[in-house]
Amino acid sequence: MNPNYLEIAGRIAARLCRDALWSRGRCNWTADFLDDGSIAHGALGPDLYAGTSGIALFLSRTASVTGERIFRLTADAALRQALEKLPVAGCGLYSGGLGIHYVAAEMGREIDENAVIRQAAADRSELDVIGGSAGAIATLLYLRRRTQSARLLEAAIRHGDLLLAEASKEESGWSWRTVEAVRNLTGFSHGAAGIGWALAELYEVTQEGRFRAAATEAFRYERSCWNPAERNWPDFRGAETEYPVLWCHGAAGIGFSRLRAWQILGDRESLAEALSALATVREDMGSPANYSLCHGEMGNADLLIHASQVLSDEAWLTPAQAVAEGGFERFERRRVPWPCGLPGANETPDLMLGLAGIGHFYLRIADPPRTPTVLLPAC
């Protein structure tokens, strides 16, 4: 364990505890957010991505490592705040209600199977990892491992079959229309990589060939979009195709999906694509627009930590440690605000865009085996 990195995580956790707003045994935070293209400010929602449950997860994990009582107390209060809001719209992992159940289970709470089943059936119109069926599958499988519940597995299978029914089945592979775009998206958050990952996880548990075939078709679609000159996969959301190197879109998130696909499916194509993604991410390090997990430097560096574990190759830790050192020197040592994931906004406290995610990265790089990634959270 690296005590310097753990100290940074602890300082960020302490700041979050200091800034929490308490009422009747629960707590919350306020933050900047985007409202119709403008920056506004308000209380956080309950979700994992940008809400109180994401902060609770970071504080809880930091408390487990450091033993600091205030971290545990604040984590519990933040989780109570999130649980009070259930059920919420959407069945997804990061922006839906199942992500809150995931955090509750991670923090040792008893799993309310009936509440999970109801949340899994809520608004199944979205398909992706962030807010839809792909994220629901991953969460339901995680909770099923904790309970051995056949009902949770059945719910995951229903979401899997929904994804199969909604797929655009073309000669180049299978893809899904998740957001308005020029073409169906590649990538982890809203694209074929994340959906393929969820289907691969479902295949591993069920051994149902239709889920393996669908996962393979999702990855085949992305393979047809690969640009050798860019050494990356395209983002089709804009009028002009771009090639970001991020967890949400581009090489970093696709790297996560392919490392896990290789573990499950054992195919050489997934491993080769994972190694290509890793090379692209490593080459892109060093000039971050922000340090968030979703679309910043910490998310990319988290992939390198994950690769060092999956591939049993600690060489991937070296560039991740360089990111950790650079962030410390530029921001934490100087006590200046961290650049978070919302352009033009102040520091935010949340997990995927803000300080909780930055702190989680330092907690993770301090002792990778002890702190699992939140960017592939149910594997």
- Low-pLDDT runs of 5+ residues are none
Spatial separation of the terminal alpha carbons: 23 Å
Q: Quick check: average pLDDT?
A: 96
**General form:** globular
The DSSP helix count reads 14
Radius of gyration: 19 Å
Following the backbone from N to C, one meets helices and strands in this order, namely: HEEEEHHHHHHEEHHHHHHH
Largest sheet: 2 strands, antiparallel
- Extended strand count: 6
Helicity range of the residues? Answer: 40-55%
Structural class: mainly alpha
For the biggest β-sheet, the strand order reads 1-2
Describe the structure.
- The protein has helices at residues 3-19, 52-66, 69-84, 97-106, 113-120, 133-147, 150-166, 192-206, 209-225, 251-265, 268-284, 297-310, 317-332, 355-366, and strands at residues 21-23, 26-28, 30-35, 38-43, 168-170, 173-175.
- Helix 1 packs across helix 2 and helix 8 runs antiparallel to helix 9.
- 54% of the residues are buried.
- The chain is 54% helix and 6% strand.
- It contains 14 helices and six strands.
- A hairpin with a 2-residue loop joins strand 5 (168-170) and strand 6 (173-175).
- The strands form three sheets. It has a two-stranded antiparallel ribbon. The chain has a two-stranded antiparallel sheet with strand order 3-4.
- The chain has 379 residues and is mainly alpha-helical.
